[in-house]
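DM from R.C. (forwarded with permission)

"hey, sorry to bug you on a friday — could you get me a structure for this? deadline for the figure draft is monday and I only need the backbone to look sensible"
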Amino acid sequence: MKRVGLSLAIALVGLWSFTACNSNAALENRVDSLEDRVDGLEGNDQSQAVVSENAQTVAMPESTTAAGVNAAGAPAFEFAETTYDFGTIDEGEVVEHTFKFTNTGDAPLVIQNTSASCGCTTPSYSRDPVAPGETGEVQVKFNSQSRPGVQNKTITITANTNPSVTRLFIKTNVTPKGEEVAGPVRR
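My reply, with the result:
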């Protein structure tokens, strides 16, 4: 009886190690596939870019750059800055910053939506299309009420650009309000 149990335990360990090896092989294949895709997107392989996990490749159209951005006809953001640091502010302050951008593409740029990673951050933007070569703005307000400490917020912009999602970042350190002392104060 002990031999059967021992044999069964050895068989299970062997099976487990075999499946672990297969998992590692699958993981290695996935890593290789992703590395090939990155090489294709970075321009190390100008003729092909990997488009799926199973290493299928397709030739990139001539109007597409190695980074996957449509070079002919697509609008494109070029922000003066993508991160803004408000520095240290007091809790309860509302601070604002305007991110300015230029449409460096060949077609009108239309922002479809903006959203923030937190309800304390409110982005707004012009609803009008931004012509090629023209500038536009995304305004961001941050309300520090009940937000003491270091704050890092993300603003996500969806537009008719390629890629369609662009992210901006704000950060600040919020000094908490001082607690009022109840009762007399000794001096």
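R.C.: lifesaver. The helical segments are 2-42.
me: no worries. Residues 77-175 form a domain with the Immunoglobulin-like fold (CATH 2.60.40.10).
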